[in-house]
Design goal:
Elements: H1 5-8, E1 21-30, H2 34-45, E2 50-53, H3 62-65, E3 69-70, H4 78-85, H5 87-110, E4 122-125, H6 131-144, E5 151-154, H7 156-162, E6 171-174, E7 178-179, H8 182-196, E8 199-201, E9 206-210, E10 215-219, E11 222-231, H9 242-245, E12 249-258, E13 271-274, E14 281-284, E15 290-293, H10 306-317, E16 326-336, E17 343-347, E18 350-354, H11 363-375, H12 380-386, H13 396-416
Helix pairs in contact: 2-8, 2-11, 4-5, 5-11, 11-12
Length: 417
């Protein structure tokens, strides 16, 4: 993380102290990424006293390392949501996905978070000519069933005009998309939470959670006793709760940032990804660098040379940048679920949300609010999200990794073919 472009360009953020001793609160939040901070901020605004415990530094997990792409909705598109849940329930899901975007933008505006926000849209490039068929069906479903008119299919010429990458056949452009500086967004949210009264603690890894009476979170040097708890650890959950671990899979994710470019490969300040199963995604930074993520990596161990790893895949999409200078290269873990929909729920008084499967910039604003609503006694929207819980990975936590690797290798082969 310390080698990332985001750390190099981070706004000032006062570090929090380590938890020492025993304290009490209405709510204890475990995890200092987007989900945890949104849950804490919403809870304190509802009058709860809140303590947030972060094992490392605030925002230094997936929340501060990701591609910064704001993609409205869920990993499943409108067509797949309708096929899975039916039109009425899919419409509810779509509306919730759009609410996540609105809540994110409202937080940035309300707290004056300086995070290089761009709202010019998101473009999904068609890697195969046949991809345009499902893209047209998606636009039709969004318009007719979901009442959303913000997306359209673009030609190969229009796509090439904004993303100077050969080999694509058009794309799906969503005007509701955008991008931001993810670490500055996390720090801005955390600053707002601290100002609102949330007690933040860094370097305070939770070793055990006891739910026999309320929620008790124990760290190496302290204890928090609370009425409610929120588990917001995502890919860094580890072995803290086996019931959650079987529903998500940590996946390695690597990015590079070039030196500032004079001839921009992405124009109109769009966030861009492609339609491959193993997705490439990219955008321009505020100071004119291409931030590129892509390629497949099936172990948690990083490549020996992240810059070289990223360059290979970047050059495959942008041949003109094959020899471009790379100033920053970094990576980390994100989580996916079997259904690619998030896992939201509760075990008694312990709430949780994770497994955003690539949609983790916008959706935590929604899940954090819904968790706070449920703690305050209004569970209707929480029940909607809990009802889409993904299945466990086959073989549980022990076998999920090798089975996932086999599946990814198969889809990666299909991409190449």
């Amino acid at each position: 993380m310390e080698r990332s472009y985001y750390v190099a360009t981070a706004n000032a953020f006062a570090p929090a102290s380590k938890l020492e001793g025993e304290i009490s609160a209405d709510v204890v939040v475990i995890g200092g990424g987007y989900t945890g901070i949104h849950a804490a901020l919403n809870a304190v605004e509802r009058g709860f006293s809140v303590v947030l415990l972060e094992a490392g530094k605030i925002g230094w997990g997936a929340s501060g390392r990701n591609g910064g792409q704001m993609i409205p909705g869920w990993r499943k598109g409108a067509v797949e949501l309708i096929a899975t849940f039916g039109e009425a329930r899919a419409k509810v899901m779509c509306d919730l996905g759009l609410e996540a975007r609105a809540l994110t933008l409202a937080r940035i505006s309300k707290h004056k978070i300086q995070c290089d926000l761009r709202e010019n849209g998101h473009l999904t490039l068609a890697s195969k000519p046949a991809d345009l068929n499902w893209m047209r069906a998606e636009v039709e479903a969004l318009s007719k069933t979901m009442g959303y008119s913000g997306s359209r299919v673009v030609s190969a010429e229009e796509a090439r005009a904004v993303a100077d990458a050969p080999g694509f056949h058009g794309g799906l452009r969503d005007g509701g998309g955008g991008h931001l500086h993810p670490l500055n967004y996390a720090h801005g949210l955390a600053g707002a939470a601290r100002d609102a009264g949330v007690q933040l603690y860094e370097g305070s890894r939770v070793l055990r959670v006891d739910t026999s009476e309320g929620v008790v979170a124990k760290t190496e040097a302290g204890v928090v006793r609370a009425r409610y708890g929120v588990m917001a650890c995502d890919a860094l959950l580890g072995d803290l709760d086996a019931r959650l671990a079987v529903r998500i899979m940590p996946v390695a994710n690597y990015l590079v940032a070039t030196a500032p470019l004079t001839d921009l490969p992405v124009r109109d300040d769009l966030a861009v990804s492609d339609s491959r199963f193993v997705v490439n995604y990219f955008r321009m930074s505020a100071d004119g660098r291409l931030i590129f993520g892509g390629g497949e990596r099936y172990t948690p161990h990083p490549p020996s040379d992240i810059a070289a790893f990223g360059r290979k895949h970047m050059g495959g999409v942008f041949p003109q940048l094959a020899n471009a200078a790379i100033d920053y290269a970094w990576g980390g873990l994100v989580s996916i679920s079997m259904s690619r929909l998030p896992h939201v729920g509760r075990f008694g008084d312990l709430f949780f949300a994770h497994g955003y499967s690539g949609q983790g910039v916008l959706l935590p604003a929604l899940t954090g609010k819904v968790l706070a609503e449920a703690m305050a006694g209004t569970a209707e929207r929480f029940d909607v999200l809990a009802s889409i819980a993904p299945p466990e990975f086959p073989g549980g936590a022990a076998l999920r990794s090798p089975l996932y690797v086999l599946g990814m290798l198969w889809y990666a082969l299909r991409d190449r073919l």
